[in-house]
Amino acid sequence: MDQQYLKQKAAWLRRVLFDMLSSAEQGHPGSVMSLVDVLVALFYGGVMRFEVNNPNVNWRDRIVISKGHATMGLYPIYADLGYFDRKELDSFCTPDGILKSFGNTSISGIDATTGSLGHGPGIGVGYALAAKYDGLDSRVFVVISEGEMYEGSIWESALMAAHHNLDNLVIILDRNRKIILGDTEELLRLEPISEKWKAFGFHTVMTNGHRFSELLQAFSNIGKTNSQPLLVIANTVKGKGIPLMEGQGNWHYWQNINKQTKDEIRHHLIANENNPQ
Q1: pLDDT tens for residues 163-199?
Q2: Would you say 10 and 34 are in contact if contact means Cβ atoms under 8 Å apart?
């Protein structure tokens, strides 16, 4: 896979997402920007199976963004795949638009309504189990945040996934180390994360969530886990790609910034799009 192509796609996605957030003046930029490279690897790196212009084909892979506030990361991708008109991106979070801050199943390509944290893995287990019953060779990808691991439902779903040998289930942890209140390891320690998931029956892989070669190598483990579900721990930076937001917990939500700052950020993103690093 052409790494430069993936970098260009990531730069494009960050620029479009910022335009959407900036126009609506709402949303969750820190959480969605940390996830961009993971989504690009999945959709443009040859990992996910889908059909252009047909979001409902039955053999497709599914993706559930359990951290529902970051679902908007899929919107420009789905517009690019022809799931809905690109003009909808300009109506993000408006009364007349179909694209909301949190994804729901009324939007083409969105497989689960999320937002109540910790429920995505349970939905993913259901989809993965149904695919097994239906004899479909499709996989289910579920993106979680580290804060969701404070929810008991996450671990109930992990038990179910391992019990049913769901090797078609991939949990992706967006490990940006920041939840609303601060750093997880200072608030309520989660480490050792990999060992915890291994104890629940998962095959675990740790990777740099912003390096495409490492992400694609991590996803190459799908189907090679001896009937175990897969956990990919993607170490990321909250707000990645926008210096003002990087590593800053307060950018979990959109913050008021003036036009000059918006223009400076957009200029930075356009420069990266024209010359992705």
Answers
A1: 999 999 999 999 999 888 888 888 899 999 999 999 9
A2: no
**37 vs 11: CA distance, rounded Å:** 9
Q: Are strands 182-183 and 178-179 parallel, antiparallel or unpaired?
A: antiparallel
Q: Which residues pair with 64 in a beta bridge?
A: 142
Domains assigned to the chain? 3-274 (3.40.50.970)
CB 144 within 8 A of CB 120: yes
Peptide bond into 76 cis (omega under 30): no
Provide the whole-model pTM.
0.96
What gap in Å lies between CA 191 and CA 93, rounded to an integer?
A: 36
| pLDDT, tens only, 191-217 | 999 999 999 999 999 999 999 999 999
Assigned token pair, 246: 């990087």
